[in-house]
Amino acid sequence: MTENLMEAMVSETKQKKPTDKKQRIVTVAAELFAEKGYANTSTSEIAKKAEVAEGTIFRHFQTKENLLLSILVPFLKEALPPMAEDVFSKVLNRYTDSPESFFHALITNRYAFFIENKEYFQVFIKELVYNEQIRNEVIPIFQRTVLMQIETAIQTFQEKGKITKTIPSETLTRTAFSIMFGFFLTHLFFQNVDGESNIEEKINQLVHLIMNGMKTSV
């Protein structure tokens, strides 16, 4: 699966026949977002290509943000489980003996994914904070996939004596995820402040921080 979310969603929407105006708007919007980017695509452009009045877009979706979410949320609900399984299986299978290498590879991989899809996640995460319906739809799937995969990896390293067993795997999972997610959010919303310099060094520091809380007793 492509790492560009909108390109993947274009493929998904093209499989659905645009039998009504609403679906045609969604299909065209996904194509234009993939081609030009979310910020550079106007609702007037979408309306023109979809051959509808611009007011029709607002009648169905109210805002351009809602239009993006109408594409993004259903796709994530369907695609998140196989995406998570694919990423974690590749990373964990490659770094079975080193939790440091595992977390470094995982953070590097997902950092690239977040930055590749930065403008979409900026809208999605802001909406996640304020929209209870979206939280109720997405978070349970996220917990069953991403958090479960991280915990499985941690339990594997615990069994090998690479990570402490004195702290429950669930606690270690949520702590590690909080650290990683905070790192991703910083780069999504405060990139102009932090910049892209020394990203490898920052990831190394992040892994060191995570592992300090997981070390086995000497």
TrEMBL record:
GO terms for biological process: regulation of DNA-templated transcription. PROSITE patterns: HTH_TETR_1, HTH_TETR_2. Transmembrane segments: none annotated. Coiled coil: none annotated. GO terms for molecular function: DNA binding. Keywords: DNA-binding. Residues 42-61 bind DNA. Residues 19-79 form the HTH tetR-type domain. Gene3D superfamilies: Homeodomain-like, Tetracycline Repressor, domain 2. This is TetR/AcrR family transcriptional regulator. SUPFAM superfamilies: Homeodomain-like (SSF46689), Tetracyclin repressor-like, C-terminal domain (SSF48498). It comes from Fervidibacillus albus. InterPro entries: DNA-bd_HTH_TetR-type_CS (IPR023772), Homeodomain-like_sf (IPR009057), HTH-type_TetR-like_transc_reg (IPR050109), HTH_TetR (IPR001647), Tet_transcr_reg_TetR-rel_C_sf (IPR036271).
